[in-house]
Structure to design on (460 residues):
């Protein structure tokens, strides 16, 4: 038993790999930021405000809490990824912490829903932006989304260096218009927003906490995507050092960006105007700020920012997700073709192609709202289990070198896991159909695992 544990430890901690290690710290930050910073920065602030009864102070507090929750979740991933710099991300951690079936259920859910659903949702959202400039039908939007998915998949099939370079360029490109709007609003804005935390009709502490939690759930969709860097850990240079650094810089920087961007909105738009816009169904507060500061050019700046943001998010997901399916196949519990890398470009070719096919099917079958709800709930379930993997693996592999350890352990792990669990339950109550889907699909994954596992044992 000790020999098995020793060989497993060596495999998990070794930096030798068939992949090419071509992603540095900036590349890692670009992957995180490229996936996390999407179009939501321009409109999710409206949902957060709505859920705290239009209280500006509580809205900013919700953004900060959402960022801190995400950061501590990211720190758990940083400890796991630095100690085990292998492809697959949370599939690997769940395998080792609990049982291979748990990791497979996570990967299977991402393979069937999470990865393709996110790619499809972003592709549809990106192409929808063009409706503001040219007449395009819903069918035309879907065809444009499919074309985008095919294009980015082909580029990713050419190797991680090219895909990472695209990610770096799109990251810088989309930050420029966002930062331009934000800093211009902060300096030009003359409104002094009321940031007191008491101007709500909610009186009891329990109701107030529940209200803030509901707003935090909305903010977490904007932070979605922070788990994806670990799936390419085997392609990061000096992962023991660079992976935690990229996670801390990426998530911490985005938390500051989101908070300041939403404060900048409050500096430009009077509170009465914000309330009137949200009440009328106009959620794009960021667009209104850009038009207020830059005039008619502002709409072009926002549209450019949204296009670049979603382009980077889509490319980042297409880059990261297939590495998870590769890890599942490497363990002998998935299609053999998924375990092979391209002889020249060293990328998991079959998983990339299959993900593109599934994404295209979802583009044709689902709308944007259905896709986003489906992805969030199913993803959070396994985020909770991955966070709990930290104490499990500390006990199971006490001698593994951990160059990075989560801060304030074990309190930080317990609180983060409890918060994510509460958010999963609340989200499932709000959308029971998607909640049921979030349970049925992993169970289907468990059945699939045991079928492959039986075949693998029969071949031995």
């Amino acid at each position: 038993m000790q020999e098995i544990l020793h060989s497993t430890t060596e495999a998990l901690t070794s930096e030798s790999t068939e992949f090419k290690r071509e992603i540095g710290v900036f590349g890692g930050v670009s992957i995180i930021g490229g996936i996390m910073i999407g179009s939501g920065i321009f409109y999710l602030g409206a949902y957060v405000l709505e859920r705290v009864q239009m209280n500006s102070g509580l809205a900013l507090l919700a953004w900060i809490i959402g960022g801190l929750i995400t950061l501590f979740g990211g720190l758990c991933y940083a400890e796991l990824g630095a100690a085990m710099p292998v492809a697959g991300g949370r599939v690997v951690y769940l395998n080792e912490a609990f049982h291979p079936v748990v990791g497979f259920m996570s990967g299977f859910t991402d393979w069937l829903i999470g990865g393709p659903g996110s790619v499809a949702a972003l592709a549809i959202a990106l192409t929808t932006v063009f409706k503001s400039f040219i007449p395009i039908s819903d069918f035309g939007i879907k065809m444009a989304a499919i074309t985008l998915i095919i294009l980015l998949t082909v580029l990713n099939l050419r190797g991680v260096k090219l895909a990472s370079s695209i990610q770096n360029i799109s990251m810088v490109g989309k930050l420029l218009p966002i930062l331009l709007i934000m800093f211009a609003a902060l300096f030009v804005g003359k409104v002094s927003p009321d940031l007191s935390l008491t101007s709500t009709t909610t009186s009891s502490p329990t109701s107030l906490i529940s209200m803030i939690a509901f707003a935090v759930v909305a903010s977490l969709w904007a932070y979605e995507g922070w788990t994806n860097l670990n799936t390419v850990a085997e392609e990061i240079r000096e992962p023991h050092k660079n992976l935690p650094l990229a996670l801390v810089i990426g998530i911490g920087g985005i938390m500051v960006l989101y908070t300041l961007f939403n404060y900048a909105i409050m500096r430009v738009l009077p509170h009465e105007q914000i309330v009137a816009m949200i009440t009328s169904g106009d959620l794009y507060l960021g667009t209104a700020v850009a038009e207020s500061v830059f005039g008619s050019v502002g709409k072009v700046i926002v549209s450019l920012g949204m296009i670049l943001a979603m382009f980077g998010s889509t490319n980042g997901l297409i880059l990261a997700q297939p590495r998870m399916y590769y890890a599942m196949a490497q363990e002998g519990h998935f299609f053999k073709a998924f375990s092979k890398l391209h002889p020249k470009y060293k990328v998991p070719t079959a998983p990339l192609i299959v993900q593109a096919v599934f994404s295209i099917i979802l583009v044709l079958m689902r709308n944007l709202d259905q896709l986003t709800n489906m992805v969030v709930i199913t993803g959070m379930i396994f985020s909770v289990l991955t966070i709990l993997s930290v104490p499990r693996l500390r006990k199971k592999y006490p001698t593994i070198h951990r160059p990075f350890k989560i801060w304030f352990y074990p309190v930080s792990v317990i609180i983060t896991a409890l918060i994510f669990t509460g958010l999963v339950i609340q989200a499932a109550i709000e959308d029971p159909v998607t909640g049921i889907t979030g349970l049925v699909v992993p169970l289907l994954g468990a059945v699939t695992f045991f079928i492959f596992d039986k075949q693998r044992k029969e071949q031995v």
Q: What stands out?
A: Residues 2-459 form a domain with the Amino acid/polyamine transporter I fold (CATH 1.20.1740.10).
